[in-house]
Amino acid sequence: MQKFFSLFIKYNSYLLFIVYCSIAVLFMKFKDDEVLAKLRTGGIEFNAFISDKMMSYSYVVNLKKENDLLIRINADLLAKVLNFENATLDERNRQKILADTTLNASKFKIARVVSRKFSDRDNILLINAGWKNGIKKDMTVLTPEGLVGRVSVVSEHFAKVIPVINTDFKVVVVSDKSKSMGVLSWNGSKEFIAHIEHIPISSSLKLNEQILTSDFSTFSMRGIPVGKVISIKPDNLFYTVEVKLAVDFSSLTQVLIAPLKIEPEKVEMIGNDTPN
User: Fold this and answer.
1) Where are the domains of the chain?
2) Stretch 67-72: mean pLDDT
3) HEC string of the chain?
């Protein structure tokens, strides 16, 4: 259809000339000058009208093509900008981790959190590092701020992480000053609050003490920050202790994966029912 209009626009003057000549010859036969003048004027106006409409149609078609091209160009530019910004952000976070003086980052793998399952009980993180990157089950996942969780499932390029804010996660912890020891877990309520069990009321635990991972843990290295004590309530034999977690899981993007703590003999001697 477009080709037809293009040909018509290109040769319309010749076609109309032939039509006009035929009509002119017909009226010359009748020698009617007035009719011929009106026909000539009408023909010119009709030719101008048709040409204007054809040019308008051609303009609309070309404009649509130009708009489509601009949309594709803008989409390509947007994709490049987003990729550049994301790469810049990832590198900035990576440099922040490497610059942290409290950790020897050369011993750790660095990965990015690429997905997260949100739940009131079973939160799961997915990181973009798998067994091809040396990641293994039960490796400790952390940030310079503190403990994130442990690796539970590993594929070629990805790994699932059970975070501290999962009701199945438990870890043996110790306070930095009183050396009070207990088992930290999460009960599915507030995302930034965990609880410590089995701290006897004879303990000298105080508010604002820092809670760290203990050497008693079967998977985690000792001394990783976990949080800070914000509430201590005595029960019959033990305290009910609340801890504000060190890691903000709502903004977690980059993580470190620590080397696997291999103590099979210790695990076998303690037994599988002991908290991690």
Assistant:
1) 2-77, 108-276
2) 66
3) CHHHHHHHHHHHHHHHHHHHHHHHHHHHHHCCHHHHHHHHHHHHHHHHHHHHHHHHHHHHHHHHHHHHHHHHHHHHHHHHHHHHHHHHHHHHHHHHHHHCCCCCHHHCEEEEEEEEECCCCECEEEECCCHHHCCCCCCEEECCCCEEEEEEEECCCCEEEEECCECCCEEEEEECCCCCEEEEECCCCCCCEEEEEEEECCCCCCCCCEEEECCCCCCCCCCCEEEEEEEEEECCCEEEEEEEECCCHHHCCEEEECCCCCCHHHHHHHCCCCCC
Residue 188 sits at the vertex; the CA angle it makes with 229 and 203, to the nearest 5 degrees, is 30
User: Residues 186, 140: contact at Cβ < 8 Å?
Assistant: no
Read off the pLDDT band of 38 (50, 70, 90): low
**Amino acid, res. 24:** A
Which among 184, 179, 181, 151 is positioned nearest to 165, based on CA atoms?
A: 184
93 Cβ neighbours under 8 A, 6+ residues apart: 253, 254
- 108-276 is a CATH 2.40.10.340 domain: yes
pLDDT digits (tens, 9 = 90+) for 216-265: 887 888 888 999 999 999 988 999 999 999 999 988 988 999 888 766 66
Instruction: Output the CA–CA distances (angstroms, integers) from residue 113 to 23, 193, 220, in the order listed.
Output: 81, 21, 20
Phi, psi (rounded to 5 degrees) for 157: -120, -5
The model's pTM is 0.62
Cα 228 to Cα 146: distance, rounded to the nearest angstrom? 11
Cα–Cα dist 255/148, whole Å: 8
Q: Please, is 5 exposed, middle or buried when counting C-beta atoms within 10 Å of its C-beta (0-12, 13-18, 19+)? A: middle
